Each structure stands twice: as C-alpha cells, then as structure tokens.
C-alpha cells in the first residue's frame, strides 16, 4: 500500500490528533489488513506476550479478534493494557464486518479529559498523580468468552504451571492469591494514573473508567478492582465525574466494512458499544 511511503507524515498526524481513519482501501480480508500493518514497518506487540484481560483469537501472527465478549457487553473507555506494566504504543483496528446496528468504537482524547477533570475534581487528579493506582482482578482457570475479563491465567501468563505463573507474577511486581476452581486473584504493583506523552501532553493514562464500570463478572463482583497506590479507596463521586467527562468527549467511530483505524494508545482511549448482528473488528498492537 502507499501508506508506508507516507509513514512519517501519518505518524506525525497521529501524535497530533490521536486517531486516523482509512476508508476505501482495498482491504477485504485479515491478510489484507496484515499487509497494511506490515507496510508501516512498526514493531509487533503480540497478544501472547501481552497481559490483556480479554479473550482474543489470533488470525495471523499480527492480527487477532478485538474481544470475544458477547454483543450485549459494553466495553468502557480505556487505554489498551494500562492496567499492566507493559502496553502497546499504537493500535490498528480493521472492520471485517460491521454490525447490523450498534457496535461503534467510542474514542476519547485523554489529554482533554484530564484537563476537564483537573478543573472539576482537582483533588482527585492530584491524588492520581501522587499515589498512582493498583488494579485487582480474578483470572479463571480456562478462558471464559462470556466475559470481557475472561482470559485465563494460563493464557495470560503463557504457562500451565502454577509455580511458573507465580515466578512471572513476582518478576512483574504482582501480588496473588489462588482461589477455588484454580482461579487466580492478582493485584498489580503501583502503576501511574497520569502519564506524559513524548510531545509533553499530560494524559489520563489508566484503566480506571473501564475497571470501575465494567470489570464485573461471575468472579469479579465483590472486591473493588481499583484502589490508589497507597491502598486508599477511590471515591465513587470522583469516578462519576471522570465517566461523565469521558462520555461527553467521546466520538463514536461508526464502522463501515473495510475501514482501518490507527489509534495512538497514549493519547486516545477507546471502547466498544453493544451491537446486534455479526460484528467482526480485528486488531493489531504496535510496540514502538
């Protein structure tokens, strides 16, 4: 494709605006999408090496399904994998088949959200900056595709061995506890809630909105999924304000089959609206 030839200009536009839609490209299959990604010459961030909570299925080495959660499940605004110590810098999405109705991908500029939040809830923003955040979730023993949080610990940690799983968690700074039915509760080390991008923008880089609104399933119902880094509680009022601002600032990407979207993961949050009919959106993650 001609996209690779314009790589530098496109990446400069991306860092300025946060997302670019490519519509009308000759992209009809996952292999076509893979070729578009390859043309940019950027480093792959594989699903296997990621600590994503979502159940996904690889189509090619670089391309996988965005999330296997049921159509009725909302996936709320988040920066991809901001709840882990390793995350991609950019995301490619490709609409293989648009839903009959619904299924938009909301996009929200995280720097503007933070500016508004600092005006309306300055103490909360100060606490985010000073304390950071910790996330807790329970991973099942085997993948649960009915949940947006359904990826098993075996898949997440790339091992079937509990000792090896514990070794990996220890290296990453996690705390953990084995539960019934061999599910595993993990809690991250303290992670930043606010980040500065390369071009000096302050962004609300975290998974707080998605965790607060959506990390609920048969396993994740009782304990709070988010706390400040010092283990103090995050107030519902502050989260309500962040959610309200995020909803107000969101732009719904209304998919047409064949669309490709490139997202700056440090600048823009994304999600998924519920939908009806078949919807297949594929994704690929970029490490650099």
Structural class: alpha+beta
- Percentage beta strand: 15-25%
Shape: globular
Q: Give the beta-strand count.
A: 17
* Series of H and E elements: HEHEEEEEHHEHHEEEEHEHEEEEE
Strand arrangement, major sheet: 1-14-4-17-2
Radius of gyration: 18 Å
Largest sheet: 5 strands, antiparallel
User: What is the helix fraction of residues, given as a range?
Assistant: 25-40%
Number of continuous helical runs = 8
Low-confidence stretches: none
Overall pLDDT level: 92
First-last Cα distance: 21 Å
Keywords:
288 residues, alpha+beta, 5-stranded antiparallel sheet
Overall description:
It contains 8 helices and 17 strands. By secondary structure, it is α+β, with helices and mostly antiparallel strands. It has a 5-stranded antiparallel sheet, covered by helices on one side. A hairpin with a 5-residue loop joins strand 10 and strand 11 (202-203). Helix 3 packs across helix 8. It is globular and about 50 Å long.
């Amino acid at each position: 494709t001609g996209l690779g030839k314009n790589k530098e200009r496109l990446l400069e536009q991306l860092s300025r605006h946060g997302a670019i839609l490519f519509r009308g490209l000759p992209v009809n299959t996952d292999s076509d999408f893979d070729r578009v990604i390859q043309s940019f010459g950027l480093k792959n961030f594989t699903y296997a090496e990621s600590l994503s909570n979502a159940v996904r299925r690889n189509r090619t080495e670089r391309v996988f399904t965005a999330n296997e959660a049921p159509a009725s499940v909302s996936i709320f605004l988040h920066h991809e994998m901001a709840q882990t110590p390793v995350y991609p810098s950019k995301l490619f999405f490709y609409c293989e088949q648009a839903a009959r109705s619904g299924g938009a991908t909301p996009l929200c500029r995280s720097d503007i959200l933070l500016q508004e939040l600092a005006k309306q809830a300055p103490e909360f923003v100060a606490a985010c900056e000073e304390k950071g955040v910790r996330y807790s979730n329970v991973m099942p023993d085997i993948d649960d595709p009915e949940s947006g949080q359904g990826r098993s610990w075996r898949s997440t940690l790339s091992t079937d061995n509990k000792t090896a799983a514990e070794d990996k968690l220890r290296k990453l700074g996690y705390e953990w506890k084995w539960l019934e039915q061999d599910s595993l509760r993990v809690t991250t080390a303290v992670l930043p809630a606010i980040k500065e991008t390369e071009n000096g923008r302050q962004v609300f880089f975290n998974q707080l909105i998605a965790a607060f609104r959506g990390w609920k399933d048969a396993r994740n119902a009782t304990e709070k999924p988010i706390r400040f880094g010092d283990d103090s509680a995050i107030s519902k009022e502050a989260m309500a304000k962040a959610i309200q601002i995020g909803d107000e600032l969101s732009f719904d990407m209304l998919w047409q089959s064949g669309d490709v979207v490139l997202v700056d993961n440090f600048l823009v949050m994304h999600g998924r609206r519920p939908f009806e009919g078949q919807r297949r959106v594929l994704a690929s993650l970029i490490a650099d």
